[in-house]
Amino acid sequence: MIQAMPELFYRLPRNVISSFSGRNLWWHALAIGLTLVIVLSGGDWTYYLATRSETAARLARPAIVLGSILPILGTLILLTIGEVGKNRRVTTTAWALGQAALLGYLISCGYKAFTGRLPPPFQGLHMSAANEGLPVDSSHGFQFGLLKGGIFWGWPSSHTTVTFAMAACLITLYSKNMKLVLPALVYACYIGLGVSVSIHWLSEFVAGAIIGSVVGRVVGRSFQTRLA
Question: Model confidence at 124, in pLDDT bands (50, 70, 90)?
Fold first, then answer.
């Protein structure tokens, strides 16, 4: 497993560049454009008010945890299965998913470092109260500049970017295998929607899904030859 570690970085510099090149750059522009539309139209705040409930909070809790743990734990489990069973295809798939998750996380953090988006009002998974018991609309709160808002909260959602990157990578590698494609899509959508009703704005979910899909497709294509 240790000897195979460099496979995690297979064509990584090239994949970083590809994620922002050609048509992929337009997808990033779309993520930014849709964010502007959602924010300026009040869509983020409307969605926020419509989805803050006890039921949504209960459904969101597993999404937050699974979105944080599964990208790492799932990749390690798959890698172990491939190494123990001496199955190169499974091992390579694990490394591809690992790179998709890593690249998705780094790119989302890079955006967050410069956008400084304020998170929605919440206390744990519940809405925090202010202004005489009414929630305060902070959906327009961006702090542009280097690390003014940190990289933990913000735009786009890292949970969503990473999960969609992994899902898109898996779908690119096994596009004809519906037993993998459908669960991957369901998982990514559940995580993205889960964080959109708890710790992120709707626009952060939308942007994360677009950017993550771009990253996953790029990584998946780069690893296709290694699965041949």
Answer: low
pLDDT of residue 54: 84
Is residue 90 one of the residues assigned to a domain?
yes
d(CA 50, CA 68): 25
Number of domains the chain is built from: 1
194 — phi, psi (to 5°)? -60, -45
On whether the CB atoms of residues 169 and 217 are closer than 8 A, the answer is: yes
Q: Note whether residue 131 is domain-resident.
A: no
Residue 189 predicted with pLDDT over 50: yes
Q: What is the pLDDT of residues 43-67, one digit of tens each?
A: 999 999 999 888 888 888 899 999 9
Residues 200-228 have a mean pLDDT of 95
Q: Which domain holds residue 29?
A: 22-120+140-227
Measuring CA to CA, which residue among 79, 125, 124 is closest to residue 101? 79
Cβ contact 205:31 at 8 Å:
no
Which residue in this structure is represented by tokens 């790179």? 99
Tell me, yes or no, if the pTM score tops 0.85. yes
